[in-house]
Amino acid sequence: MHRLHLRVFFVLILSLAAFPLGGCLFRTRPLDRQFSNQPLKSATQQDLIDYVNSQASKIQSLQATVDIDASAGDVKNGRITDYKEIRGYVLVRKPSMLRMKGLLPLVRNTAFDMVSDGRQFKLWIPPRNKFVIGSNNSSNYQPDKRLENMRPQYIYDALLIPEIGDDDAVMENGYETVLDSRKHQVEQPNYSLLVIRKGPQGAYLARKIDFSRIDLLPYRQRIYDQQGNVATDAHYQNYKQYSGVTFPNTIKIERPREDYDITLNMVKLEINPQLTDDQFSLDQPAGADVVRLDQQNPNTAKASNGQNK
Fold first, then answer.
1. Domain for residue 4, yes or no?
2. CATH number assigned to the domain comprising residue 109
3. pTM for the full model?
4. How far is CA 154 from CA 87, 109, 118, in A?
5. Residue (of 67, 23, 33, 26) closest to 235 by Cα position
6. Range of the structural domain that residue 73 is part of
7. Per-residue pLDDT of the chain (309 residues; tens, 9 = 90+)
8. How many angstroms from the chain centroid is the CA of residue 156?
Protein backbone atom coordinates (compact mmCIF):
# COMPACT_ATOMS: atom_id res chain seq x y z
CA MET A 1 0.00 0.00 0.00
CA HIS A 2 1.23 3.46 -0.85
CA ARG A 3 2.65 5.06 2.31
CA LEU A 4 1.45 8.62 2.95
CA HIS A 5 3.74 9.35 5.93
CA LEU A 6 0.68 10.35 7.97
CA ARG A 7 0.07 13.09 5.44
CA VAL A 8 -3.46 14.26 5.83
CA PHE A 9 -6.73 13.52 7.49
CA PHE A 10 -9.01 11.59 5.19
CA VAL A 11 -6.33 10.25 2.92
CA LEU A 12 -4.58 8.78 5.93
CA ILE A 13 -7.63 6.84 7.03
CA LEU A 14 -8.85 6.01 3.54
CA SER A 15 -5.46 4.44 2.82
CA LEU A 16 -6.54 1.76 5.25
CA ALA A 17 -9.78 1.18 3.39
CA ALA A 18 -9.06 0.95 -0.32
CA PHE A 19 -6.70 -0.31 -2.95
CA PRO A 20 -4.79 2.69 -4.33
CA LEU A 21 -4.58 3.49 -8.01
CA GLY A 22 -1.40 5.38 -8.77
CA GLY A 23 -1.07 8.18 -11.29
CA CYS A 24 1.11 11.09 -12.30
CA LEU A 25 1.13 13.99 -9.84
CA PHE A 26 0.69 16.64 -12.50
CA ARG A 27 -2.70 15.59 -13.81
CA THR A 28 -5.58 17.71 -15.00
CA ARG A 29 -9.21 17.15 -14.11
CA PRO A 30 -11.88 17.53 -16.80
CA LEU A 31 -14.27 20.42 -16.36
CA ASP A 32 -17.70 19.20 -15.35
CA ARG A 33 -19.69 22.33 -16.02
CA GLN A 34 -21.19 22.78 -19.48
CA PHE A 35 -22.07 25.85 -21.50
CA SER A 36 -25.80 26.52 -21.67
CA ASN A 37 -27.85 28.34 -24.29
CA GLN A 38 -30.64 28.95 -21.80
CA PRO A 39 -31.47 32.59 -20.98
CA LEU A 40 -29.34 33.81 -18.09
CA LYS A 41 -31.11 34.67 -14.86
CA SER A 42 -30.49 37.91 -13.00
CA ALA A 43 -30.22 38.59 -9.27
CA THR A 44 -29.24 41.41 -6.97
CA GLN A 45 -26.67 41.21 -4.22
CA GLN A 46 -29.47 41.02 -1.66
CA ASP A 47 -31.17 38.22 -3.61
CA LEU A 48 -28.04 36.10 -3.35
CA ILE A 49 -27.52 36.88 0.33
CA ASP A 50 -31.16 36.05 1.06
CA TYR A 51 -30.84 32.73 -0.78
CA VAL A 52 -27.73 31.70 1.19
CA ASN A 53 -29.30 32.71 4.50
CA SER A 54 -32.62 31.04 3.67
CA GLN A 55 -30.99 27.74 2.75
CA ALA A 56 -28.81 27.85 5.85
CA SER A 57 -31.84 28.36 8.09
CA LYS A 58 -33.74 25.47 6.47
CA ILE A 59 -31.09 22.87 7.30
CA GLN A 60 -30.56 22.14 10.98
CA SER A 61 -29.41 18.54 10.61
CA LEU A 62 -28.81 15.90 7.98
CA GLN A 63 -28.20 12.19 7.77
CA ALA A 64 -26.62 10.74 4.66
CA THR A 65 -25.32 7.53 3.16
CA VAL A 66 -22.48 8.47 0.82
CA ASP A 67 -19.93 7.02 -1.54
CA ILE A 68 -16.53 8.57 -0.83
CA ASP A 69 -13.81 9.16 -3.42
CA ALA A 70 -10.49 10.72 -2.42
CA SER A 71 -7.12 11.59 -3.94
CA ALA A 72 -3.79 12.59 -2.42
CA GLY A 73 -0.68 14.04 -4.00
CA ASP A 74 2.80 13.00 -2.93
CA VAL A 75 5.18 15.73 -4.05
CA LYS A 76 8.25 13.75 -2.99
CA ASN A 77 7.44 10.81 -5.27
CA GLY A 78 5.51 12.78 -7.90
CA ARG A 79 2.48 10.53 -7.61
CA ILE A 80 -1.27 10.80 -7.11
CA THR A 81 -3.05 8.08 -5.15
CA ASP A 82 -6.79 7.60 -5.65
CA TYR A 83 -9.27 5.89 -3.34
CA LYS A 84 -12.59 5.02 -4.94
CA GLU A 85 -16.15 4.45 -3.79
CA ILE A 86 -15.83 3.81 -0.09
CA ARG A 87 -19.26 3.55 1.50
CA GLY A 88 -19.74 6.01 4.34
CA TYR A 89 -22.30 7.57 6.66
CA VAL A 90 -22.53 11.21 7.66
CA LEU A 91 -24.45 12.87 10.49
CA VAL A 92 -24.56 16.65 10.89
CA ARG A 93 -26.32 18.73 13.51
CA LYS A 94 -26.01 22.46 13.94
CA PRO A 95 -24.32 24.40 15.28
CA SER A 96 -21.17 22.26 14.89
CA MET A 97 -21.72 18.51 15.37
CA LEU A 98 -20.36 16.08 12.78
CA ARG A 99 -19.97 12.32 12.63
CA MET A 100 -18.58 10.40 9.70
CA LYS A 101 -18.00 6.68 9.40
CA GLY A 102 -16.37 4.74 6.58
CA LEU A 103 -16.51 1.03 5.80
CA LEU A 104 -13.87 -1.27 4.34
CA PRO A 105 -14.72 -2.53 0.84
CA LEU A 106 -16.30 -5.98 0.52
CA VAL A 107 -16.14 -6.98 4.20
CA ARG A 108 -17.91 -3.75 5.31
CA ASN A 109 -16.05 -3.58 8.61
CA THR A 110 -15.40 -0.12 10.05
CA ALA A 111 -12.42 1.60 8.41
CA PHE A 112 -12.75 4.78 10.46
CA ASP A 113 -15.20 6.49 12.78
CA MET A 114 -14.94 10.20 13.57
CA VAL A 115 -16.89 12.71 15.64
CA SER A 116 -16.47 16.45 16.10
CA ASP A 117 -18.26 18.99 18.28
CA GLY A 118 -16.63 22.00 16.61
CA ARG A 119 -14.00 22.30 19.32
CA GLN A 120 -12.50 18.82 19.57
CA PHE A 121 -12.57 15.80 17.32
CA LYS A 122 -11.95 12.10 17.88
CA LEU A 123 -11.01 9.60 15.21
CA TRP A 124 -11.03 5.81 15.65
CA ILE A 125 -9.15 3.70 13.07
CA PRO A 126 -9.78 0.01 13.94
CA PRO A 127 -7.43 -1.51 11.29
CA ARG A 128 -4.52 0.34 12.94
CA ASN A 129 -5.92 0.30 16.48
CA LYS A 130 -5.36 4.08 16.61
CA PHE A 131 -7.50 6.62 18.43
CA VAL A 132 -6.69 10.20 17.40
CA ILE A 133 -7.70 13.23 19.47
CA GLY A 134 -7.24 16.81 18.26
CA SER A 135 -8.54 20.35 18.47
CA ASN A 136 -10.54 22.04 15.72
CA ASN A 137 -9.37 25.45 16.87
CA SER A 138 -5.88 25.37 15.44
CA SER A 139 -5.44 27.93 12.66
CA ASN A 140 -1.66 27.63 12.31
CA TYR A 141 -0.78 25.74 9.14
CA GLN A 142 2.34 23.59 9.62
CA PRO A 143 3.66 22.49 6.22
CA ASP A 144 6.13 20.03 7.75
CA LYS A 145 3.53 18.36 10.01
CA ARG A 146 0.73 17.11 7.80
CA LEU A 147 -1.02 15.03 10.46
CA GLU A 148 -1.30 18.05 12.76
CA ASN A 149 -3.14 19.95 10.00
CA MET A 150 -6.06 17.55 9.78
CA ARG A 151 -9.39 18.99 10.94
CA PRO A 152 -12.86 17.49 10.30
CA GLN A 153 -14.26 21.01 10.68
CA TYR A 154 -13.18 21.55 7.07
CA ILE A 155 -15.74 18.98 5.98
CA TYR A 156 -18.51 20.49 8.10
CA ASP A 157 -17.85 23.98 6.70
CA ALA A 158 -17.98 22.69 3.12
CA LEU A 159 -21.10 20.54 3.58
CA LEU A 160 -23.31 23.35 4.83
CA ILE A 161 -22.73 26.79 3.30
CA PRO A 162 -23.02 29.11 6.32
CA GLU A 163 -25.25 32.16 6.38
CA ILE A 164 -23.72 35.55 5.65
CA GLY A 165 -24.80 36.81 9.06
CA ASP A 166 -23.07 39.95 10.32
CA ASP A 167 -20.29 39.70 7.75
CA ASP A 168 -20.10 42.20 4.93
CA ALA A 169 -20.65 40.95 1.39
CA VAL A 170 -19.78 42.36 -2.03
CA MET A 171 -21.28 41.15 -5.30
CA GLU A 172 -19.14 40.57 -8.38
CA ASN A 173 -20.34 40.08 -11.96
CA GLY A 174 -17.78 37.71 -13.40
CA TYR A 175 -17.27 34.63 -15.57
CA GLU A 176 -16.78 30.92 -15.11
CA THR A 177 -14.90 28.65 -17.50
CA VAL A 178 -17.11 25.91 -18.97
CA LEU A 179 -17.06 23.50 -21.91
CA ASP A 180 -19.05 24.00 -25.09
CA SER A 181 -20.47 21.17 -27.22
CA ARG A 182 -17.05 20.65 -28.83
CA LYS A 183 -15.34 20.39 -25.43
CA HIS A 184 -13.69 23.76 -25.96
CA GLN A 185 -13.23 26.04 -22.96
CA VAL A 186 -15.44 29.12 -23.09
CA GLU A 187 -16.53 31.72 -20.58
CA GLN A 188 -20.04 32.07 -19.24
CA PRO A 189 -21.27 34.90 -16.97
CA ASN A 190 -21.72 34.17 -13.29
CA TYR A 191 -22.23 35.93 -9.97
CA SER A 192 -19.98 35.84 -6.94
CA LEU A 193 -20.51 36.90 -3.35
CA LEU A 194 -17.31 37.97 -1.61
CA VAL A 195 -17.79 37.62 2.14
CA ILE A 196 -15.63 40.05 4.12
CA ARG A 197 -14.83 39.43 7.78
CA LYS A 198 -13.04 41.49 10.40
CA GLY A 199 -10.03 39.81 11.97
CA PRO A 200 -7.41 40.81 14.52
CA GLN A 201 -5.32 42.40 11.75
CA GLY A 202 -8.18 44.03 9.88
CA ALA A 203 -10.73 43.03 7.27
CA TYR A 204 -10.03 40.00 5.08
CA LEU A 205 -11.74 37.92 2.40
CA ALA A 206 -13.27 34.99 4.29
CA ARG A 207 -15.29 33.28 1.56
CA LYS A 208 -16.14 33.55 -2.12
CA ILE A 209 -19.39 31.89 -3.23
CA ASP A 210 -19.95 31.47 -6.99
CA PHE A 211 -23.47 31.26 -8.42
CA SER A 212 -24.55 29.93 -11.81
CA ARG A 213 -26.52 32.38 -13.95
CA ILE A 214 -28.46 29.39 -15.32
CA ASP A 215 -30.24 28.51 -12.06
CA LEU A 216 -28.78 30.97 -9.48
CA LEU A 217 -27.52 28.04 -7.37
CA PRO A 218 -24.10 28.04 -5.69
CA TYR A 219 -21.65 25.79 -7.50
CA ARG A 220 -18.42 26.71 -5.72
CA GLN A 221 -17.30 28.04 -2.34
CA ARG A 222 -13.73 29.04 -1.55
CA ILE A 223 -12.81 29.50 2.10
CA TYR A 224 -9.74 31.64 2.86
CA ASP A 225 -7.44 31.98 5.82
CA GLN A 226 -6.57 35.41 7.19
CA GLN A 227 -3.41 35.53 5.06
CA GLY A 228 -5.46 35.33 1.86
CA ASN A 229 -4.68 31.67 1.06
CA VAL A 230 -7.40 29.34 -0.25
CA ALA A 231 -7.79 26.85 2.58
CA THR A 232 -10.81 24.93 1.21
CA ASP A 233 -12.22 24.85 -2.31
CA ALA A 234 -15.65 23.19 -2.37
CA HIS A 235 -17.66 22.36 -5.50
CA TYR A 236 -21.40 21.59 -5.59
CA GLN A 237 -23.16 19.67 -8.37
CA ASN A 238 -26.36 17.80 -9.23
CA TYR A 239 -28.82 19.63 -7.01
CA LYS A 240 -31.94 17.74 -5.97
CA GLN A 241 -34.96 18.41 -3.80
CA TYR A 242 -34.97 16.81 -0.36
CA SER A 243 -37.99 17.58 1.83
CA GLY A 244 -38.41 20.94 0.15
CA VAL A 245 -34.72 21.83 0.41
CA THR A 246 -32.45 22.11 -2.62
CA PHE A 247 -29.20 20.30 -1.83
CA PRO A 248 -26.23 19.18 -3.98
CA ASN A 249 -25.98 15.47 -4.66
CA THR A 250 -22.21 15.70 -5.20
CA ILE A 251 -19.83 17.72 -3.03
CA LYS A 252 -16.13 17.83 -3.78
CA ILE A 253 -13.82 19.27 -1.11
CA GLU A 254 -10.29 20.25 -2.09
CA ARG A 255 -7.52 21.20 0.33
CA PRO A 256 -4.87 22.76 -1.94
CA ARG A 257 -2.05 23.17 0.58
CA GLU A 258 -2.27 19.60 1.83
CA ASP A 259 -2.75 18.41 -1.78
CA TYR A 260 -5.76 16.18 -1.27
CA ASP A 261 -9.42 16.15 -2.18
CA ILE A 262 -12.48 14.20 -1.11
CA THR A 263 -15.76 13.79 -2.97
CA LEU A 264 -19.04 12.84 -1.31
CA ASN A 265 -21.71 11.35 -3.58
CA MET A 266 -25.11 11.14 -1.90
CA VAL A 267 -26.68 7.70 -2.00
CA LYS A 268 -29.42 8.53 0.48
CA LEU A 269 -30.06 11.86 2.22
CA GLU A 270 -32.49 12.92 4.92
CA ILE A 271 -32.82 16.60 5.82
CA ASN A 272 -33.59 17.63 9.41
CA PRO A 273 -33.85 14.22 11.09
CA GLN A 274 -33.97 14.10 14.88
CA LEU A 275 -30.39 13.35 15.99
CA THR A 276 -29.45 12.71 19.61
CA ASP A 277 -26.27 13.46 21.53
CA ASP A 278 -25.55 9.72 21.74
CA GLN A 279 -25.22 9.58 17.96
CA PHE A 280 -22.23 11.94 18.22
CA SER A 281 -20.53 10.06 21.04
CA LEU A 282 -17.31 8.13 20.41
CA ASP A 283 -15.57 6.49 23.37
CA GLN A 284 -11.93 5.50 23.33
CA PRO A 285 -11.70 1.70 22.92
CA ALA A 286 -9.80 -0.21 25.58
CA GLY A 287 -6.20 -0.88 24.55
CA ALA A 288 -6.18 1.58 21.65
CA ASP A 289 -3.00 3.44 20.71
CA VAL A 290 -3.73 7.13 21.36
CA VAL A 291 -2.38 9.97 19.22
CA ARG A 292 -2.83 13.47 20.66
CA LEU A 293 -2.31 16.04 17.92
CA ASP A 294 -2.20 19.05 20.22
CA GLN A 295 0.98 17.87 21.89
CA GLN A 296 4.24 19.42 20.72
CA ASN A 297 5.44 16.11 19.29
CA PRO A 298 2.44 13.78 19.13
CA ASN A 299 3.51 10.22 19.77
CA THR A 300 1.51 7.07 19.75
CA ALA A 301 1.02 5.84 23.30
CA LYS A 302 -0.53 2.60 24.46
CA ALA A 303 -3.58 3.34 26.57
CA SER A 304 -5.08 1.03 29.09
CA ASN A 305 -8.80 0.69 29.68
CA GLY A 306 -10.27 3.91 31.12
CA GLN A 307 -7.20 6.07 30.43
CA ASN A 308 -6.88 9.16 28.20
CA LYS A 309 -10.61 9.50 27.64
1. no
2. 2.50.20.10
3. 0.81
4. 20, 25, 10
5. 33
6. 9-26+33-302
7. 333 333 344 554 554 444 343 443 333 344 468 778 788 999 999 999 999 999 999 999 999 999 988 776 665 666 666 666 789 999 999 999 999 998 887 777 888 899 999 889 998 989 889 898 888 765 555 555 444 455 678 889 899 999 998 889 999 999 998 888 888 888 999 999 999 999 888 999 999 999 999 999 999 999 999 999 999 999 999 999 998 899 999 999 998 887 778 899 999 999 999 999 999 999 999 999 998 877 655 444 444 344 444
8. 6
